[in-house]
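Our platform keeps sequence and structure together, in a single record for each protein. Such a record has a labelled line for the sequence and another for the backbone structure tokens. This encoding replaces a full spatial description with a residue-level series of whole-number codes. Below, we set out a record of this kind in full and without editing:
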Amino acid sequence: MPSAQIVSLSAQQMTNQQRKDIALQVISNKASVTDIANHHGVSRKFVYQQKDKSIEAVDQAFEEASSDNDSVLFYLPVTKAWIAQLILCLILYGRVSFRGVKQVLKDCFDHDISLGGIHNIADRAKSSAARINAGQDLSSVKLAAHDEIFHHNKPVLAGVDISSLYCYLLSEEDQRDTDTWAIHFMDLQQQGFTPERAIGDDGNGLRSAHKMIFPDIPFDYDNFHLSKLLMETRRYFRNSHNSSLTLLNNLELKMEEAKLKGNPSRYSRALGEARKYENTMHYLSQTVDTLVSWIEHDVLNKMGPALPVRKALYDFIVDEFTQLEILHPHRIKALRVTLTDKRDIALAYCDALEDKFRVIAQAHDCSLESIWDICELLRCELGGDTYSIRSVPLQELLGDKYDEVEDAVIIALGSTERTSSMIENLNSRLRLCFNMRREIGHGYLDLLRFFLNHKPFVRSSKPHRQGKSPAEILSGKAHPHWLEMLGYTRYSRAN
């Protein structure tokens, strides 16, 4: 039998896996075509055929992948109601301007709509949102936070429930005086707004209005502003010390150059002043660092000693700042005056802790002092050596009740706030919505507030907030999707 016929029969008898192996070998260039043909007992032509088939298969696979972009995923019935929902989502999720919405509809859907048509859709949603906002029961708000954010030099009054992040007040006003705040507080009262405590800054209008409308409800000072001032002062002196070191090093280099040139006295006076300045700034920076750490971690920290001890530490720190004021009155005097004026209101949250700790002490038949001792102990890492050593006397004193008392103290601390950080969080989200708009009146804030309150949290560090909206957390009841609450039927794909 001729050799060509033998080769042909050998190729015909090969399995698909053997053919694929040949193609992979020739593509990977692991051996020459001749060697591959001889090894498998086939012709060079057959090897090239397998190579061409594999390359064609690869090309075809990538062509199919690229053509997937043009395949129809699903068909969407575009109605006027659907267009209205898309417009609202672009405005609220994307913070798109009316002209931007108009262009998106034109470019992506070849659909023309006037600015007036977009305005009418938004206006109808604003009316529905305002009605829903006004119908919300606010009796569940226990800890309220108030603040003012400015947009184009006009104040926007804001209020939020700290636990749920429900925004119950969002209004642009011409003034932020007592009467303006008081009117809003009276309106909120009609919705059942009677918080146990409120937190805010030291704005005169806000504090006066709260005292007028809610005389029996404590209004705590937001420690965030005090902590911010402390951090800024510490950063200032750290930077000043670094600058003094740079100045000193530069002068020392210049002095060395002057000595080499035979003029050692040229920078003597300047160098002496620089060393004196560096010593002063080093002392100020280290001392301010220490004092700020003390007031942050030993006084303003919720997990700490009882109120009398905190006040004594606070007064000691103020006295130390008074001494430093002599060295740097420009920066330290303002801080010292603020600390002096804000002591009682900055520590007012301790009164709330005292009330809760008194209830715990009565429930477990133990002394109030032991509850505060546990509160201070919780500053230590749970399970750490320091915690284990310091907890021994308390465990001996409380016995089997220790774990229950400690859990109750932890719950009390978690439900007590000393800052209105949640209102600052709201302000940061509002700025994103305000930046692209000059006009935020005429019902836009009603719609925005409704959207923020009924949009579920995508993520949260608090388990009770995950996957729920602020309105759902506040009321404890589920509600429909915010588009459905505005009267629209959402599109859903058929299975």
Notes: The chain has four domains: 3-70, 78-218+425-495, 223-347, 363-409. The beta strands are 143-151, 154-161, 167-172, 197-200, 219-221. The first helix runs from residue 3 to 12.
